[in-house]
Specification:
The chain is of the alpha/beta class. It has 3 domains: about 20-55 and about 110-220, no CATH class; about 220-415 and about 675-765, Alpha-Beta Barrel (Anaerobic Ribonucleotide-triphosphate Reductase Large Chain); about 420-675, no CATH class. The strands form 5 sheets. A 5-stranded mixed β-sheet has the order 1-2-3-13-12. Helix 3 (about 40-55) runs parallel beside helix 6 and helix 11 crosses helix 13 (about 330-340). It is globular, with a radius of gyration of 26 Å.
Length: about 775
């Protein structure tokens, strides 16, 4: 067996089917009065130092890249030594924060790390400290922050030294000469990087991964951004000089990619939700903390484990350079091919495409998508996204260098502090129809605009609906401004901030106005179900007058009990979004344009400081749990049923096929929604085989891009395979399905979610 085969076998047959080790529970650094007197940010850095010195360290068979991250899971929580004092915890919780409230999502400037090393970063910090100290009145907070940064960087150096020594120790015991030589080389590399700049491809991979381990072991759930760009100079130099062969490069890449999957758990019986605290479970009212919803929703039996293997890891390849040239290179293909061979779910794979992208890249992506069940790579449209970024005010060269976060949202790597919130349009429609009350929670949650039967025209009804959305947007932005300066006071990120521009120059945390860009999109949620519901109300109540508004509100309040004939009329007599029907597509276009205008007008009227407020359309993988919190809707959806994922048609309502769906979703102008509005599409791989099938797949992808789509995901599988996987999961451990923001192993999902995926594949979306 080749090395990569042995590593893959170990991952699937050992790592993924064994209980995971949680380290850091009940640990604390608050062991002396001297430590307690330190500023909180310094105590956070001392906690990072404690972790780097004490967390488990292992070197596994065959691996060429070493490091064992104490991963934080978006679904199941995380552990970290306590560093906050009781009064600080109490103050933080007033804003719905704890010391674990690290949002993640922000890829660092890994290229800077590789070029400068820890020593270069440290020198830059010391120079800024010296400048600050020369001021007439130095800012104590800045000096404390610089000290925290240096403590954190020194801690990463200690982690690297631990691995260097461990490799030496194992080399001394190793009987196999070839492996002994590998261990000695690993020891040499870890003694050098990330402290010093990387010079070889192996050093670059190892330097980045050790820093990544330090971040993920310090609560930072960060993606890995444009790996084919910042690694390529080292790969190219080594290949051209003959330092390594193509086969050796494949082994290095495979070993590196495999490391991100060591925490993945495929057996639900080993999921452990006991590591989530109050923040992890979503308690508290701060809307800037969408990550809190993951664990809360995964506690539910119908959805448990959806995000258990979500570590917010995204790798994006291809695209263009900051100068606008094609950025695809040999490493782009090598990374895709090795990722595909591993059948991994981490990192989430994305590919940027544009008019200059090689045909070979289109065909490789199409071939993987039609054959596998991965739902990846997710495909990004450079032209639309770069235009959206520049319209938001991002300089063109930086816009061309865009990356994504841990799911798919667009940002500028190494320069961004990112957060978002939902605009829940179907939930808002429920409020209007139910006089401000939730049908599920049976409580008042929005203003009562009166009996919906009072509205004489659709325009009058729609105006009130938009009034409710207007109020929600104001609340979201007011809450963001209210709480945005609280997080760094309890959960700063001194280590990650060392590789985020312009934190060192400003002497501030990335979450405290340190990052160059603070991007905060509002994500329209539950769109297709809302649009279909508006179409029913517009056509059947106000145009055809087949039923009254009172009948509609009563039907949804009763969950259509005893009113199945009315429900079937709602489903069958009105066009549905996603079928190239101008009637309903026009409703979607108007709603999205009206929301864009509302956001634009509201932000113009508010003092939003340095926030870049963008737009997207999203549910991520939580479309089941989002639907679980909403009652029946006029589109015929029953109470607590799932909503449509991201920017996809409602489940089972896409009767016109993939082309019709693409034409529908590209009817609106999507440039304002460049942060992301993925169309999640399922295809039966039996219909995409052979050369003609590949050509059709490529044509489908290119049509999506040319018509102005933003992000496309395609899952190629069959209803038969999914049904067989339910019956015999051991034979289908590597079968993956796309879930809105990531891919998951099908057999690890609960039965309810498996059934939903089968239903989606059967209907095509």
């Amino acid at each position: 067996m080749k090395r990569i085969d042995r590593i893959k076998k170990r991952i699937f047959e050992v790592e993924m089917v064994s209980p995971k080790e949680w380290w850091g529970q009940d640990e604390t650094i608050l062991t002396s009065e001297e430590i307690k007197k330190e500023p909180l940010v310094v105590r956070k850095a001392l906690a990072v130092e404690y972790v780097m010195r004490n967390m488990p360290a292992k070197i596994k068979p065959d691996e060429l890249i070493v490091g064992l991250a104490n991963y934080a899971s978006a679904g199941l929580g995380f552990e970290f030594p306590d560093y906050a004092l009781p009064e600080e915890k109490e103050e933080g919780m007033r804003g719905a924060f704890t010391y674990k409230s690290v949002w993640g999502h922000h890829p660092g400037d890994y290229q800077k790390l590789l070029q400068s090393g820890l020593q270069g970063l440290r020198q830059e910090i010391l120079e800024q400290m010296e400048l600050e100290c020369k001021k007439k009145e130095p800012q104590r907070e800045k000096l404390d922050y610089y000290r925290a940064m240096i403590i954190s960087l020194n801690a990463v150096r200690e982690l690297a030294v631990r691995y260097s020594q461990l490799a030496l120790k194992q080399a001394a015991k190793e009987r196999e000469p070839a492996r002994r030589k590998e261990l000695l080389e690993i020891s040499r590399i870890c003694a050098k990087v990330p402290e010093q700049p990387a010079q070889t491809f192996h050093e670059a991979l190892q330097s980045m991964f050790l820093f990544f381990c330090a971040l993920h072991s310090s609560l930072e759930m960060v993606p890995i951004a444009r790996t084919d760009q910042y690694f390529y100079p080292y790969y190219k130099r080594d290949i051209e000089s003959g330092r390594i062969t193509e086969e050796e490069a494949e082994e290095l890449v495979g070993s590196w990619l495999a490391k991100f999957n060591e925490r993945v758990q495929i057996l639900p019986e080993y999921f452990d939700a006991s590591h989530a605290n109050a923040y992890d479970k979503g308690d508290g009212g701060n809307p800037d903390h969408f990550a809190a919803s993951f664990a809360m929703e995964n506690d539910q039996d119908y959805n448990f484990g959806t995000s258990a293997n979500n570590f917010l890891l995204n790798m994006i390849l291809g695209g263009c350079t900051p100068q606008g040239e094609d950025a695809v290179n040999d490493l782009t293909y090598l990374l895709i091919e090795q990722w595909n061979y591993l059948e991994a779910i981490m990192p989430v794979l994305s590919v940027r495409l544009n008019s200059k992208s090689p045909q070979k890249l289109y065909e490789l992506c199409a071939d993987i998508l039609r054959k596998g069940g991965s739902g990846e790579p997710a495909l990004y449209n450079d032209e639309v996204i770069i235009k959206g970024l520049t319209d938001l005010g991002i300089p063109l060269e930086e816009a061309r260098d865009y990356s994504n976060d841990g799911c798919w949202e667009v940002l500028i790597p190494g320069r961004t502090n990112f957060g978002f919130e939902y605009i829940k349009v179907l939930q808002t429609l429920e409020y209007v129809l139910n006089r401000g009350a939730s049908l599920i929670r049976k409580r008042q949650e929005a203003p009562d605009y009166g009996d919906p039967a009072q509205f004489k025209t659709y325009e009058e009804f729609y105006t009130v609906f938009m009034k409710c959305i207007h109020q929600k947007i104001i609340e979201i932005l007011q809450n963001k401004l209210k709480y945005r300066d609280v997080r760094h006071k309890i959960a700063p990120s001194p280590l990650l901030s060392t590789i985020v521009s312009d934190c060192i120059q400003r002497g501030r945390d990335l979450s405290d106005h340190g990052a160059r860009y603070n991007i905060y999109p509002l994500m329209v949620c539950e769109l297709a179900n809302c649009v279909d519901s508006l179409a029913v109300i517009k056509k059947l109540v106000y145009e055809d007058r087949i039923c009254t508004m009172s009948e509609v509100t009563e039907a949804v309040r009763m969950n259509f009990e005893g009113k199945e004939d009315l429900r079937q009329m709602f489903i069958n007599r009105v066009p549905k979004f996603g079928n190239d029907e101008p009637y309903v597509d026009g409703i979607a276009a108007k709603l999205l344009e009206d929301i864009r205008k509302e956001v634009s007008d509201i932000t113009a009227s508010m003092d939003i400081d340095d926030l870049y407020v963008g737009l997207g359309i999203a549910t991520f993988e939580t479309y089941m749990s989002i639907g679980h919190n909403i009652g029946a809707s006029p589109d015929g959806r029953l109470s607590q049923e799932p909503v449509s994922s991201n920017y996809s048609p409602s489940i089972g309502m896409d009767l016109g096929g993939p082309t019709a769906a693409i034409k529908s979703i590209t009817t609106p102008d999507l440039v304002p929604y460049f942060i992301g509005c993925p169309l999640d599409m399922q295809i039966n791989y039996n219909e995409a085989q052979g050369d003609e099938g590949l050509k059709r797949m490529v044509a489908l992808i290119k049509s999506f891009l040319e018509l102005g789509g933003v992000i496309l995901t395609i899952t190629g599988t069959s209803e038969e395979d999914l049904l067989n996987a339910q019956k015999d999961p051991a034979k289908y451990r590597s079968l993956r399905v796309r879930m809105g923001g990531l891919s998951a192993y099908f057999v690890a999902l609960p039965k309810e979610h498996q059934d939903l995926m089968i239903r989606k594949v059967k209907h095509g979306l």
